[in-house]
Amino acid sequence: MNLCFDLDGPLIDVCDRYYRAYLESLAGTDTREVQVLSKEIFWKLKQNRVPDTEISIISGQSAKDARNSAELRKGLSFKEEYLALDKLFEDVYQMFDYLKSKRIPFFIVTLRRQSQLMYAVKQFKLNKYFNNEKLFSLPENQKSQGDIHEKYILFATAINNLGLDSTKTWIIGDSETDILAGRLACYKGVIGITRGIRSRVQLEILRPDFLVHNLTELANFIETIMM
Per CATH, is 2-13+87-226 categorized as 3.40.50.1000? Predict the structure, then answer.
């Protein structure tokens, strides 16, 4: 058994970062027209796949301003000052120590750029568990070719570089990109985790092989299939 972790969502809580980018994207709009959403409402909309433009319209922006603010958020969300708002979920180190004790290989595949991934490695001291050979991300200046395609290529590259069997490897992801790309890469199965960018309802539509809320539930699942 091998495990492949997506970074943002399964391991890192990105809610504060995305919400800060949302707040910043509203700057410059007439405050008399804007009704700023609470973080809880904003995140619920994100988890249920409400587009950024629609979130801006719900907040009171015009269609034109909403498009501009949605585009602005894309650029803001991965700046270092925003990445600094991320938090590592409390069960991550415990999970990695558990996997090491069971001698289960694990690695990270993310659509972050390489510098953004290495920022998180330093930020959360993940080099204790991962050397560079177990970290897979997008090249710094690669033009976007579509999330699913790019994630599929990374999944396939990871398996080839690590010399692992994809049919014995499970993906832990929080989005449609992880689930669909994992299936394209012919991994053993995909485990959806509901604390990330997609809600349980949205993940259930995609029919992952298993659903968990956190990594403690994942450990219980591992124990079950290893019996």
Answer: yes
